[in-house]
Design goal:
single chain; alpha/beta; six-stranded mixed sheet; 6 helices; 32% helix; 24% strand; binds guanosine-5'-diphosphate; binds magnesium ion; Ras-related protein RABA3
Length: 175
């Protein structure tokens, strides 16, 4: 990339889910291919971008981070405004973060556009020995709610790009 390529579309994607599930690390992995071992909760950075090509179109993905406001109902409707996609993240080693996913879906239904594409993400899939959420439970919930689903590891990068490309392709398909 010479930085002068023509952008065909800018897609806003929000990342939501409980605190410490790995939202910021997933975003860094996708945007910069970085993982920061001792990340502090994010303050300030609103979004990161990565430009990708989908079906010959240059898509600038603008991925928004909650910046430490992930307390239930503390994320304001401004955060969701204009979002075409949402990555709803839980931690496969923390059952409670999965139990809260239904509330996050309610938040999206209340504040985001009806046509928003939602992907449920079970992160920290590298921590196999600590798994507390069976894949089948998440898959069943996702199918029930009409969400896409993937398990990822921001630590080793597994499925992160694949999940983002999937949601961007789906957005491309629906816009
Ligand atoms: P956020 O609050 O949802 O933004 O979570 P962070 O991205 O700040 O991550 C919270 C903690 O989980 C940090 O200590 C990360 O290093 C760790 N973490 C994030 N993603 C992964 C992952 O895929 N695997 C493992 N083992 N740890 C992760
Ligand atoms: Mg964060």
């Amino acid at each position: 990339s010479n930085g002068h390529e023509k952008i065909d579309h800018v897609y806003k994607v929000v990342v939501i889910g409980d605190s410490a599930v790995g939202k910021t690390q997933i975003l860094s992995r996708f945007a910069k291919n970085e993982f920061c071992l001792d990340s502090k909760s994010t303050i300030g950075v609103e979004f990161q971008t990565r430009t990708v090509t989908i079906k010959g179109k240059v898509i600038k993905a603008q991925i928004w981070d909650t910046a430490g406001q992930e307390r239930y109902r503390a994320v304001t409707s401004a955060y969701y405004r204009g979002a075409l996609g949402a990555m709803l993240v839980y931690d496969i080693t923390k059952r409670q973060t999965f139990d809260h996913v239904a509330r996050w879906v309610e938040e999206l239904r209340a504040h985001a556009d009806n046509s928003i594409v939602i992907m449920l993400i079970g992160n920290k899939a590298d921590l196999v020995d600590l798994r507390a959420v069976p894949t089948e439970d998440a898959l069943e919930f996702a199918e029930d709610q009409g969400l896409f689903f993937s398990e990822t590891s921001a630590l080793n990068g597994d499925n992160v790009d694949t999940a983002f490309f999937k949601i961007l392709e789906e957005i491309y398909g629906v816009v």
